[in-house]
Amino acid sequence: MEVCTLTAKSINSKRCEHSSCKEDKLPEKFLEQLVGFGPSAGVALTHEGIETALDEYYCLAGFTNSGIPTPTTHKQLDIEWAAEYLLARAIRRGGATSPLFISSD
Predict the structure, then answer these.
(1) How far apart are CA 102 and CA 63, in angstroms?
(2) What range does the domain containing 12 cover?
């Protein structure tokens, strides 16, 4: 099995323990303007820019808008057990219709 596939399986398996996209935040210091010289001097990230990048990452990674891997992603990586785990956890936390389990597939 190639390294990229193993890495994707690992990341997606770990995301099953991830409660929501609330944990996908950068420290506030990343929003401060950079000092010094060169092309990055005075540049600062914005909340909007970070959210846009995160949405794009979720889409490319096969995650829901909440940052949870979709059932399709689990199937492609042959880790369907992770989807079963997510469903069981969602039911324990308020049902499969909770925001945690809503799929964007």
Answers:
(1) 11
(2) 3-92
pTM for the full model? Answer: 0.65
Cα–Cα dist 66/29, whole Å? 24
The CATH number that applies at residue 17 is 1.10.599.10
Segment 21-27 mean pLDDT: 79
List the single range of 1-10, 24-33, 39-48 with lowest mean pLDDT.
1-10
- Asked if 34 and 44 count as a contact pair (C-beta separation under 8 A), the reply is yes
Please tell me the distance from the alpha carbon of residue 72 to that of residue 103, in angstroms, as a whole number: 9
What CA–CA distance (Å, rounded) separates 19 from 66?
Answer: 9
pLDDT of residue 10: 78
